[in-house]
Amino acid sequence: MRALHWFRSDLRLRDNRALAEAAGRAERLVCAFVLDDALLASDRTAPPRLRFLLDCLERLDAGLRERGQRLVVRRGDPRREIPRLLEETRAGLLSFNRDYGPFARRRDGAVARAAEKAGVDVLTCKDRVVFESTELRTGQGEPYRVFTPFRNAWWKRFEAEGPAPGGALRLPPPVGGVKAGAVPGPAALGVAADATEIPTAGEEAARRRLRAFLDGAVARYPTDRDLPALDGTSRLSPYLRLGAVSVRTCVAEALEQARGVPGSAAGARKWVDELIWRDFYHAILSEYPHVLERAFKPEYDRVRWNQDDEGFAAWCEGRTGFPIVDAGMRQLARTGWMHNRVRMIVASFLTKDLLVDWRRGERFFQSRLVDGDPASNNGGWQWAASTGTDAQPYFRIFNPVSQGERWDPDGVYVRRFVPELADVPDRFVHHPWDAPRPPAGYPAPILDHASRRQEALRRFEAVRKATGRGRR
Ligand SMILES: Cc1cc2nc3c(=O)[nH]c(=O)nc-3n(C[C@H](O)[C@H](O)[C@H](O)COP(=O)(O)OP(=O)(O)OC[C@H]3O[C@@H](n4cnc5c(N)ncnc54)[C@H](O)[C@@H]3O)c2cc1C
Fold first, then answer.
1. Quick one: pLDDT at residue 186?
2. Are 395 and 386 in contact (CB under 8 A)?
3. Every domain range in the chain assigned CATH 1.25.40.80
């Protein structure tokens, strides 16, 4: 039997569920990827993420070739291209790993229906997450809406029946006579050769990074993860985004480390907790797809936001006059990535200081991040805007100065991305306007945090009063 494996966000050959199933069943295998015109044209597609994707595809193709296989690359609408390839290759089985966003689910449903209509068996697998939303339910059989009970249920189920990672695969030979089509270079797709630094792509790079993190920083992760000047987190997010590493492998190797290496248990478990946030936001997107358009909690669709195009532009360009915010936005521009603590601070600044709608920030992030992922990005933004799943009893507004002083006390991080602050003494580095000589070329703060904070409280309080819901 011939099988076609459709690669999407699973660009690896190790521990890949649907690929392993297809490889086990088929005598001949076609490995395909479709560059989707709709995604290529979308203004949400970040150039660094697209470049990283193309690099990952090249590595995947090289890995397939080492195993006597190759990657067949098509461009167009997968709803047309996959059925076409099935016909061309006379495959009797189509395999792919499941995706959870509404766009992907519609697409996959259409492809699966077309395949089945043509008499092709369709095999889909859970691969992108450790547990799908349907596997973790409250006592009432409902999906979880709050992280902590989700995490507790996750660990309980994991300890009982956590999925073990698979290994490297033996692949059947390819189907002859199929035009492979090369992975296009960025220029062919109109991706500007901009100055964004992107990480080395592919499965091997991901494995090296995971090993280096587990052999090093994981031990200090509970504290260092919040300090943006340090290399205290794994930086695996772009690889997890495109599936260059499997989340099962990450969890299994972290827990192995926790068992085997004294001093790393707390760090490794904390790190797995962060991977559970990823499962959580995928579960939220899967159960509540409206979050891509609207607030998770509907009453917060009533919040009155400012248009403030000028403030938004200053935020995007990293010239708000608040060093930690500007450093974060410039890190994003330069590297396509931003430290988690700083993502929270800049998102709070946009929504609670500038009072700009979280959807504009979400969209901007998605159009710039190398790890931009609809589920995690939306979850992060709704968390920061207090419109999401979070169950904090208080209303959170970050003070950009005290956050900077707390997490970047010597200003090492802000100076790395805001060179104008190089000569500002440490004690003024997060409020340079108070320095004896304010730095040349660096803007004065564009707003007064204390009064904006009051205004944000008023606007959220107005929603609470109008709807009788929401937190105090
Ligand atoms: C406003 C905002 C937007 C965000 N947008 C994205 C996004 O588009 N894509 C994305 O992968 N993460 C996003 N995050 C979550 C988090 O910032 C990144 O996952 C993390 O910074 C990636 O760095 P790392 O790989 O070194 O993380 P580590 O600390 O090493 O964590 C390991 C992995 O756990 C997952 N993870 C960690 N924290 C979170 C979290 N809060 N939510 C979901 N998953 C998490 C990621 O897959 C990450 O790679 C966002 C957070 C905020 C506040």
1. 87
2. yes
3. 129-167+204-287
Query: Per residue in 13-67, pLDDT tens?
Result: 999 999 999 999 999 999 999 999 999 989 899 999 999 999 999 999 999 999 9
Stretch 441-451: mean pLDDT: 98
Distance 237 CA to ligand 1 centre (A): 6
Q: Does domain 298-465 have CATH number 1.10.579.10?
A: yes
pLDDT bin (cut points 50, 70, 90) of residue 472 is: very low
Over residues 73-100, mean pLDDT: 97
| Residue 105 reports pLDDT greater than 90 | yes
Q: Of the listed 271, 315, 358, 407, which one is catalytic?
A: 358
| Residue in 155, 277, 287, 455 annotated catalytic | 277
* Separation between Cα atoms, residue 317 and residue 417, nearest integer Å: 12
Residue 72 Cα to ligand 1 middle (Å): 31
What's domain 2-127's superfamily in CATH? HUPs (3.40.50.620)
Instruction: Place 145 in a pLDDT band, splitting at 50, 70 and 90.
Output: very high
Question: Percent of the chain scored above 70 by pLDDT?
Answer: 98
Q: Which of 349, 368, 330, 372 is nearest to 445 (CA)?
A: 349
Residue nearest to atom 44 of ligand 1 (CA): 278
d(CA 209, CA 221): 15
Q: What residues have CB less than 8 Å from 441, skipping those under 6 apart?
A: 420
d(C-alpha 245, C-alpha 267), whole Å: 20
The owner of tokens 């603590």 is 341
CATH 3.40.50.720 corresponds to the domain 129-167+204-287: no
Phi, psi angle pair for 96, to nearest 5°: -160, 160
Known catalytic residue at 358: yes
Locate CATH 3.40.50.620 in the chain.
Answer: 2-127
Whether 407 is a known active-site residue: answer no
